[in-house]
Structures are given as structure tokens and as C-alpha cells.
Amino acid sequence: MNSGNEPTNSAPATAGPDTTNSAVAPEATAATLITNIAGLVTNDPPLGDGSPLGLIRDAAVVIEGDRVVWIGESSKAPATDNRVDVGGRAVIPGFVDSHSHLVFAGDRTAEFNARMSGRPYEAGGIRTTVAATRAATDAELEANLTRYLREALRQGTTTFETKSGYGLTVEDEARALRVAARHTDEVTYLGAHVVPAEHADDPAAYVALVTGEMLDACAPHARWIDVFCEEGAFDGDQARAILTAGKARGLHPRVHANQLSYGPGVRLAVELDAASADHCTHLTDEDVDALAHSATVATLLPGAEFSTRARWPDARRLLDAGATVALSTDCNPGSSFTSSMPFCVALAVRDMGMTPDEAVWSATAGGAAALRRTDVGRLTPGARADLVVLDAPSHVHLAYRPGVPLVTRVWRAGVPVVG
Ligand SMILES: [Zn+2]
């Protein structure tokens, strides 16, 4: 690392961290050269060294408006009006967090404390959050969402998906999606999170609601539909009915699959061409094979296993079989209350058999694949100008220096939002 070089910035004054990742209109359209990058991750193999990360040493990037317009070795960079020297640091694409649950109120500190202290805890899990969310105002929900998005942005997340699922009434699900849609295009209808207490005696009636009136109210505000396919939540037949109804309304499936036990979720996801099967902790050989021969991404959420002391998903097995793997936070107040993609990268390397290169790819390009996006998760001409500068000479430090706040600067859609 070129020690001692503080980043300099001749660009206009930076904007404060805002949390919107849809259609940001940059103020300046003049080109900016970002240079003196020790190691640049492009996720475009031919653009770089041929590896999956497409690494370029001594690199530079030119951004204009909200796009990347040039990438290469710094010695070949074109002249621009603005110039930012990052002082020999590493630059990666902004993280793509393709799985979070951020529209909620309250927290579950007591539940976590009991679990980690080996004490029984009887209160209602997801239903605790449902009660708090229903009782919150729209403004409270939005303030909470904004807070966690700012937190994620400071850690380098420039694209995120988020879900409903703590309303579980027609009105409360629709308003969760309306709130989320003000901050991201990647909004997921998860009316089928759990069967709410008031329908516990008649789950079929709740499935009818989720596929009927609730779907009608929610479909205009969402891109995706999701189901928690698990014992105690929704079985394979219910999940198929819900996802199929969503597809008929133009929502594309993603599935909470095989988290707590073996089950039909992964194979249903593949059958319905879901963009992603999420969790994938308990997989048979047939499940792994199905994922490897499909366009469905296996999204692994190690924050959940960390926070519940559960068995880790086996990323190595999926990668060796040829499946596409994404990493995501699953940020939610019950089972994974982290918004940190760098933390997930470190866990995946330490405990799930991923190499540092694989984990960084899965947290950027992998997340983009799980959202079927090609404009984010990579740094190539034409891609959205989402860049993260690490206070380190290499992306490997994300796993090598766990828990250290390495993200020093972030551009999202060409706008400096951190640092
Ligand atoms: Zn989840």
C-alpha cells in the first residue's frame, strides 16, 4: 500500500448520505477520474486479469453522470475535469444485498439475549415484530428503514432488496411495500412469511388471502414475491400456489428455502425459475444438482447462522457443483440483525469454505445475479457508478481484517455518498 497518501478529492462538495438507490439524479455530469487504485475488482474477467474478479492493478476508473465510462490502468487514463486520488487503496463494486427485511418496528433484544444465554424464551418470535410493526406509524417505519439503510451504505451497500412480511394484513403488507418502494426498486412481497396468529386455526384461509385480496393490494408496489417454505410456515403445495399466483400478476419468485430443515423449497424454486433460493442450509445432493443446473442463485445468509448458533451452509459444496452463490445479510430484528456485507464476507470465508475472492464476488456480482441485474455488482463501462474504496490495498482485507470498518468512501450512481 502507498502508505500515508490521504485520498484527495477535487470534485464538488459531497452530498450527505441519503438512502435511496433507485434512479438517483446526479447533480454534476462532468467526468471524474478516480485513480491511484492499488487493486480494482471489476467482476469482468476479460477487462482485468482473466480471473472471475477481473482484477486490475494500478487502476483508474472514469465516471460520468451515473455511469462508469472508462476503466483501465491508471497510466492510460484519459484527462478529465475532476480527479480523485484514492491513495493506493482497493476499490470494489458496491455491495448488492439481495435479501433483507427492513420494514419493521421494535426489536428482539430480550429474545437474542435469552438464546445466547441458554435460557428458554417463550415470546412470539416473528409475531412479536408483527405486533410492533402493525402498531407503528408510516413515519416510524420509514425512519427505521432509513436508519438501517444509512448504516448499510456506510458499509458499502449500494443496492439492496427488502421485503414486507411483518404486516400480514392487506393494509399492513401494502403499506410496507409502499414505504420500501420509496427507497429501492427491489421490493419483495412476503405476505407468506408466517401464518399470523389470527389465522392459526385456518391456514388455508390465510393462503387464500395472500393469493387474493392481499396480492391485489401488493402487486403494484413490488417486483418480487417470496415465501418462507419451511415446516411451521408454508409447505411445498402452499408455496407453489402462492408463487404461481404471484407470477400470474407479474411478480417474479424468490424463495426462503431449506433454512431450518430439508424440504421442497429449493426444488420448487428451480421448478418455478425463481431468481434465488435463499438460505440453502440443509441440502440434499439432488438439491445441489438442481441449483447447479438452473438459473436460480443460491443465496447464503451467514448472519442468520451466526446469530442463532446454527449449522453453516456449505458454500464450498455448492460452488464445486457449479451453482451460482450470492451472499446477503438477511438483516432482520429476529435472526440476523446485521446490515454488514463485510461481516458476511468474513463469515463466509472463515466458516463456509469460500475463498476471499469467491466471497467478494458473491457479495457483489452474486447479489446482482440473484436480482437478475447486470448494471450493478460490476465495474465495467456502462455499469452504474457504484464504487467502494477500502482502507486497504486489497479486497482480501475484507476477510483478513474482520470487524474493521474498512469502507472509507462510497459513490452510488456517480454521487459521492460516504467519505
Ligand atoms: Zn429472510
Automatic annotation (TrEMBL):
Region of interest: Disordered: 1-22
Keyword presence, Zinc: yes
Gene it is expressed from: hutI
UniProt xrefs under HAMAP family: HutI
Binding site for N-formimidoyl-L-glutamate: Y166, N332, G334
Source species of the chain: Streptomyces roseolilacinus
Residues annotated to bind Fe(3+): H99, H101, H256, D330
Subcellular location: Cytoplasm
Sites where the protein binds 4-imidazolone-5-propanoate: R108, Y166, H193, Q259, S335
Cofactor entry: Zn(2+); Fe(3+)
Binding sites annotated in the UniProt record for Zn(2+): H99, H101, H256, D330
Catalytic function, reaction form: 4-imidazolone-5-propanoate + H2O = N-formimidoyl-L-glutamate
Protein name: Imidazolonepropionase
Major enzyme class: hydrolase
Cofactor binding notes: Binds 1 zinc or iron ion per subunit.
One Gene Ontology cellular component: cytoplasm
PANTHER family in UniProt: IMIDAZOLONEPROPIONASE, IMIDAZOLONEPROPIONASE-RELATED
EC numbers on record: 3.5.2.7
UniProt cross-references to InterPro entries, sorted A to Z: Amidohydro-rel, HutI, Metal-dep_hydrolase_composite, Metal_Hydrolase
Amidohydrolase-related domain: residues covered: 91-395
GO biological process, one term: L-histidine catabolic process to glutamate and formamide
